[in-house]
Design goal:
Length: 298
């Protein structure tokens, strides 16, 4: 498990003393949670020493150069820390490639182990007027390097607007345009507020949920579709404004869709855990909501 943290505690490299407390993620082995990141300013630290190998310890993003060792974050411009809560405030950013980036290899066990997985992100959603414009999409998570339609990829999650404003996760099946997708209408109460999106695929279903408010959720599921025949095991997961599917020159209206803050996220390999995502999703949101409610500004 790789855990990336922002904290107000000093960090001077691998082996430095890291504050710790019991975490909601401690139930996952390293194989089950190949990458989890958390930038909330309360500095909740979790998991054991395996989380801090390979320079993956405290990530003081936005306090200087955001380009850190080990490829954990790639940023093409200065990204401000969201006041009060912490997290990447993407509103001032107008360039693709500003992302939290998982280490290479984080997806390999998922691909080789049956392609059952979960991906999730904690974000303060854009206001409704800024959500992706009609007929356009705005990716917020991807495992594609440059083009989700022409290269092998595990999952691509995007804002999408047609007659309604929707969250649209797309799971590829053949290495190119054949996909399994879900169109989840975003509840009005989500816009401009914190929420947690999650996509998971198990032995029976493919499912997307948004958890928000006091124990509320919106969800959609379909029967499990076919595996991806294209090998995505070497691809890298990215949260933020990825290169794949983003072109502000061609589609300048999509820039406003990134007026949001992202504060945490992760990937789970469901072949390596018995944790049920249908039960864990609400628990994970409750965990983060309690932390957000305790911060001075959320």
């Amino acid at each position: 498990m790789t855990l990336v943290i922002q904290s107000n505690q000093p960090y001077t490299g691998v082996g430095a003393t890291i504050p710790s407390r019991v975490s909601i993620f401690d139930r996952f082995s390293a194989a089950a949670a190949p990458f989890v990141w958390d930038l909330l300013t309360d500095g909740a630290i979790s998991h054991d020493a395996v989380a801090y190998n390979n320079n993956d310890g405290i990530l003081n993003v936005m306090r200087g150069n955001p380009d850190l060792p080990n490829g954990i974050i790639a940023a093409t411009t200065a990204i401000p820390n969201a006041p009060g809560t912490g997290g990447m405030n993407l509103a001032p950013v107008n360039a693709a490639g500003n992302v939290i980036k998982a280490p290479a290899g984080a997806l390999s066990g998922i691909y080789s182990g049956g392609q059952n997985f979960a991906a999730w992100g904690l974000i303060k959603f854009p206001v409704e007027a800024d959500y992706s414009a009609s007929g356009s999409v705005a990716p917020i998570f991807t495992t594609a390097d440059a083009n989700q339609n022409t290269e092998a990829t595990m999952l691509h999650v995007q804002q999408q607007t047609s007659t309604t404003k929707r969250l649209y996760p797309v799971r590829q099946k053949n290495g190119s345009a054949a996909v399994s997708g879900l169109f989840l209408v975003v509840p009005t109460a989500v816009f401009g507020n914190w929420g947690l999106w999650m996509f998971d695929r198990n032995a029976l279903t493919e499912r997307v949920n948004i958890y928000y408010g006091n124990g509320l959720s919106a969800g959609l599921s379909v029967a499990r579709d076919t595996d991806n025949v294209a090998d995505y095991s070497a691809k890298v997961a990215r949260w933020g404004i990825p290169n794949a599917g983003v072109d502000f020159t061609v589609n300048p209206a999509s820039e406003a869709a990134y007026n949001f803050v992202q504060a945490a996220g992760g990937i789970f390999n469901l072949a390596q855990t018995s944790v049920d995502m249908a039960a864990f999703g609400p628990e994970l949101w409750a965990y983060y909501k309690a932390r957000l409610d305790a911060l001075p500004t959320s």
